Amino acid sequence: MPEAIFCGPKTVDQCVSITAEMLASSEDAVIATRVTTEQGLELAELGPTLVASNTMVWNPRPVTGRRATILAGGTSDLPVVDECRLTLTAMGHSVTAITDVGVAGLHRLLEVIDDLDDAEVLVAVAGMEGALATVLAGLVTQPLIAVPTSVGYGSAFEGQTAMASMMASCAPGIAVVGIDNGYGAACAAHRILAMFARHTPRGDN
User: Are 146 and 138 in contact (CB under 8 A)?
Assistant: First the structure.
């Protein structure tokens, strides 16, 4: 599992120096998360990257064929979705992201349920009351990781309500990471997919 650079609180020079050192010392994937606009402009000078929202990736691993699907309640959750998606991509997994399937438009989730069959692990990203994870867990059999986001009105309490709701879900077996932690969700999903890779020949499932 490649180490990530948490850029947000660092200076531009620190981010560039750390990233350049990691790129020079290894050919493995390098992941930078919570990148500011100013940091991103300088980091882009280090060479070809994958960029989405505030996440950047260099040297993604070859695609292994292991499959993950990320589902998001709304487009407001996209920065967290992108953090998760690019981290999984960096680790060599095939990733599909499906947005705007929150419970406010439940019919949209039901329309894509059959499309989830090929995924070996699912990630549910949602703010407000975080109900997407519970609904999804009642419909699928795959391992499910829930990510509460800080999106929502007053009583959402910057993600606290979604996190508590996901952790208290009546659908058993949901793993919950911290608020807005798309990177952590991706790392948990990677561990599950790596287990599949050890026990199942590539392309046989």
Answer: no
